[in-house]
Amino acid sequence: MSFQQPFFNPRVPFTGCIQGALHEGKTITVTGRVLPGAQRFHVNLQCGSRGNPDIALHFNPRYDSFLDVVICNTMQHSKWGSEEREYFATMTRGANFTLMFLVNRDSYSIFVNGVLFMEYLHRLSFSRVDTISVNGGVEVQSIVLLMGEYSTFSRSGQRNRNRSRQSKTGPKTPQWCNATQAFSAAGFLQAPPPYTAQPPYTPKPSFVVPYKNIMAGGLYPGRNITIQGVVNHNADKFCINLRFNSGVAFHFNPRFNENVVVRNSLLKEQWGQEERTGGMPFYRGQPFTVIIMCDTQCYKVMVNGALMFSYNHRHFLFQQIDILEVEGDMILSAVLV
């Protein structure tokens, strides 16, 4: 698996390098929040950053009409193609979101909060795409880029190969585009005036394991926790715990000798029934990114860009769950709560 250091809390507008360009199987996962007063924002997967680059995928949620809509399009030689539109109800104003782009041979699969939202057929070769840019009414918590083998899930839990519909109406030139952003020598540079340039991204130092942190305000539906690290070469197991004062609401425990990820809860000083299905996406000596998404009914866990596990809540007083623990045979490089 190819590994690139994520971008954490980048200021918007943002432009960043995709190291090695896109390949089949690569994922880009963007976590953030739509601003309460947002009119629209966009995420562009584009071919370079200088001049007026081609844009392979322009993903553009808009909130300035009667129905919230996502416009997708491609720009070649400074000309926009035919728009593809999908209406949505999940990325509302003020809401947190996790947006994932999976590169397939024929299309991009676009997931919102772990659910397949649409597929967008390639109009430009994805091997040309070496840049991601974000602009508009959005705050970004993290951008994670990974290369590996991934499973995908549709609205019904199975792969959906239906292509998105093309619209014959609507404006042909998406707004909020600024294609003149460029890279610095370090690999990234923000937009030119009137926007303020940002310094190059600096990786965060590693954390001491065992790691413990208080999550201000506790959990709530829509809150995401991102954990990044590297599994030790001789690892036996490690765990991620979401705790409250007298128990563990969610115990996430990869065990390498058993080749399984165990999920459980410790309530009233007793462990419940283990959940052990779903495969083993971790490997000794390999980097990983785990995103735990708190939903109203369950925790959804993405590993290296793929939605791997769903764990129904057993402790429902979310605000009490305010302690994050990471323990075991791994190097912890980044935590975002």
UniProtKB/TrEMBL annotation:
Supply one GO CC term from the record. Answer: nucleus
Give the residue ranges for region: Disordered.
Answer: 155-174
The UniProt entry, under InterPro entries, shows: ConA-like_dom_sf, Galectin-like, Galectin_CRD
A Pfam family (short name) is: Gal-bind_lectin
Q: Which GO terms describe its biological process?
A: negative regulation of CD4-positive, alpha-beta T cell proliferation; negative regulation of type II interferon production; positive regulation of gene expression
Provide this UniProt record's keywords sorted from A to Z: Lectin, Repeat
The name under which this protein is listed is Galectin
